Amino acid sequence: MNFQFDKETLSSFTGNIHREWSITNGIGGYGGSSIIGAHNRTHQGYLIASLHPPVERYLVFSKTNEKIIGDEIYDLTTSQHAGEVISQDTIIHQEDLPEAYRREDTVFVPADFELRKPIYTEGQKYLTSFSYDGTVTFTYKAGPVQLKKQISLVQGENTVAVSYEFINQGNDAEAVITPLFNYRDHSGSSRPEDLKFTVKEQNGSLLLIPEANPDCEILLQYSEGDLISREELYDVDMQLQTEVDNETPGLDCHYTPYDIKISLPAGKTTRFSLICSVSTEENPVPERACTADLAFELIDAKKAYLEDLITQSGLKDELAQALVVASDQFLCHRSSTGLKTVLAGLPWFTDWGRDTMIAFTGLTLVTKRFKEAEEILITFAKYVKNGLVPNMFPDDGQDPLYNTADASLWYFYAVDQYLSYVNTPEAYDFIYQNIYPCLKEIIAAYKNGTDFSIYMEEDGLIHAGSGVDQITWMDVRVGDWVVTPRHGKPVEINALWYHALCVMDQLAAHYGEPTEEYSVLASKVKESFLEEFWNEKDGCLYDVVDGDNKDASIRPNQIYAVSLPNTMLDEEKAKKVVSVVKDKLFAESGLRSLAPEDEQYHPIYCGSLPKRDAAYHQGTSWGYLLGGFYSAFMKVNNYSAEAAKEADTMLNGTRKHLYEGGIGSISEIFDGEAPHTCRGCYAQAWSVGEILRCYTQDILPYLK
User: Fold this and answer.
1) Alpha-carbon distances of 148 from 141, 202, 606, rounded to whole Å
2) 3-state SS, residue 541
3) Most distant pair of Cα atoms in the chain: their distance
4) Are 452 and 401 in contact (CB under 8 A)?
5) Residue whose C-alpha is closest to residue 17's, from 45, 39, 47, 43
6) pLDDT attached to residue 142
7) Residue 526 φ/ψ, nearest 5 degrees
8) Half-sphere exposure of 112 (CA within 13 A, CB side)
9) Is residue 90 in a domain?
10) What span, in angstroms and rounded, lies between the C-alpha atoms of 149 and 172?
11) Beta strand 159-168 with 115-122: parallel, antiparallel or unpaired?
């Protein structure tokens, strides 16, 4: 699916600065910007290299700016820079303020926030189209010169290819290309004093070695042209609007030592290639001669790679194919295991156990990437500790963290789905040899007790968490404030526990082992669950049960007591749960994390980190939850054609969103309040994986 935007749409700077594209390389590196070419967040640039896949991610090549010089000068640069400081005594209009400070009328700038007026360089006025298909294409019209600029990362290496095709229908002209370099952590920012390099000019290339890391080599190759030294070595005060919206200064700086000047003869088409690579001892980049066609060839190779993924999936539906391409962005190599893993979200998340197991089916099984599926299961099996699957692998390469009660239980779901899709003797042998011992370890640990106050109570249900533990997916903590602690017996943990016991019962039977331990306990869990969790007053399930305390907050976690393959609710109760969730929580592109009538409800997710954390699970809508919702909706409606049509219509919010945030992908979160603005990561693994899974499993087959 090719996502396209026309000249009229692209003409607005502020209307497009939050529409973003992203590209990846399969080893943790990525690139991205807005569809008009201006950066809006720290996590943007043409090449953010992963120095220790999939972590230690550094911005090295920010972008290129272009000018066409002929009878007139056309500056195609699109950027936002910080201008003068607006004093707190100055009355300004709300559109000049970050979202957190906007009101209905004109307002004063808060005393604790230094706001600098944005200065726009509006090269987007020359854009005639933008398109995204897993690679990026900008098309400009600058007087008599048409420019087609394409960008892609090379699969498996820290290399970005930028191709240029100039069609000059006027007099002789020149193109001036300015590369912007950097070397900083992808979540940071730079100042001129931070950007010091040893620079070596070579024939057709520049070699930059950052003083901050002499073992890293940044190589820029260009196919022709003259290298011209610039007077201004730094692009200072680039203002990143998303960071300003988050109540930070949002300023960055880039190193710009040279321009590349290219002749554009009258009446001719000129092809030009620009390649930037990062080599380290761990990840060297192969040597290539930079011809005029090289970037075009590398971009065509990436397009062919993505087309092969679509063909391999066997999916013909347009939405499904778009999500196949989106899913590839999260699958990457992990150096520590030599196997595949899943990045939870772009641009900042690493590989999280919970997210991986939830996204697993859509990303690897629906797409028929079964080898990657096996590698992911082994990757996490290698790190099981005390019966716990890792919660996350930190970005700095430290040991994984284990503060999660659900990742281990979602692991059973992933294994069960794997066997359902592959269903061969070899697949069962693979699980028996590599995964089954871990499953036994997890069951024993949950029964007997493990870290983070995770243990089985006398009623057979699982208790999890105490103190300042964050052990469910609603895991925000600000200092010692756990926003949604959910300590006790969370509803989804126990729905997953029941499903895990059923899976173990089935596996033990298949492998000729005793099953009574699992089947008897599963029956006890079902009985206790129905007795303790049913909320007769609201016609749904309690969110957390802790002794006599029962949390009646209307949250989406209960949907998994319906959607999982093995469930405990009868048909009547299941229908009531789905009805309550649909009426109270459905919000176009996601499910709200809390019902709007709750006094703790936060309708908007914006502002500083503490403000955002307070809203994260208190009303903010989550894209991934739609997977469980649509599966439950179809189940209670007996997979009828009418239900499939209704679910497909509800999916129109997601289809629309593919053009709004991270183009071609699905965001992490959305405001609970209309118009449900997308927030957080612009591309989230479990959002993409769950929509792809439920759409192909539970909706598409029943559409007529």
Assistant:
1) 9, 27, 36
2) strand
3) 85
4) no
5) 39
6) 97
7) -60, -45
8) 4
9) no
10) 20
11) unpaired
Residue 289 is encoded by which pair of tokens? Answer: 């001669």
Domain-located, residue 337: no
Beta bridge partners of 349: none
Angle at 488 between CA 484 and CA 489, to 5 degrees: 105
Which residues have a Cβ under 8 Å from the Cβ of 240 and sit 6 or more positions away? 39, 40, 41, 42, 44, 80, 250, 251, 252
The pLDDT tens digits of the residues spanning 529-560 come to: 999 999 999 999 999 999 989 999 999 999 99
Q: Is the pLDDT of residue 627 over 80?
A: yes
Query: At which residue do the structure tokens 């057979």 appear?
Result: 460
Which residues neighbour 221 within 8 Å (Cβ) at sequence distance 6 or greater?
204, 205, 273, 274, 275, 276, 277, 288, 290, 294
Quote the pLDDT of residue 108. 41
Number of folded domains that form the chain? 1
Q: Is 373 helix (H, G, I), strand (E, B) or coil?
A: helix
CA distances from 540 to 503, 553, 558, 580 (A): 25, 10, 8, 7
Q: What is the DSSP letter of 695?
A: I
Q: Would the pTM count as exceeding 0.85?
A: yes
C-alpha torsion sign, points 650, 656, 662, 665: positive
Could you tell me if residue 210 is inside a domain? yes
SS (H, E, C) 340-370: EEECCEECCCCCEHHHHHHHHHHHHHCCCCH
Residues pairing with 136 in the sheet? 132, 151
How far CA 444 is from CA of 332, 345, 386, 449, in Å, comes to 31, 32, 9, 8
The percent of residues in the chain predicted with pLDDT above 70, rounded, is: 95
- Rounded to an integer, the average pLDDT of 319-325 is 98
**Residue whose structure tokens are 């936002």:** 80
The answer as to whether 492 is a domain residue is no
d(CA 524, CA 35): 55
Q: What is the DSSP string of 615-651?
A: HHTTT-EESTHHHHHHHHHHHHTTT-HHHHHHHHHHT
Residue 209 dihedral angles phi and psi, to the nearest 5°? -120, 115
Confidence of residue 97 (pLDDT cuts 50, 70, 90): low
Instruction: Decide if pLDDT at 703 tops 70.
Output: yes
Number of CB atoms found within 10 A of residue 99's CB: 18
If you average pLDDT over every residue of the chain, what do you get? 93
**Containing structural domain, residue 270:** 3-70+123-235+256-305
- Tokens for 112? 């604790």
- Distance between CA 354 and CA 475 in Å, rounded? 12
CA–CA dist 306, 308 (Å, integer): 5
CATH value at residue 36: 2.70.98
Instruction: Give pLDDT tens digits for 351-407.
Output: 999 999 999 999 999 999 999 999 999 989 999 999 999 998 766 667 889 999 999
- Which tokens hold the place of 419? 């066997």
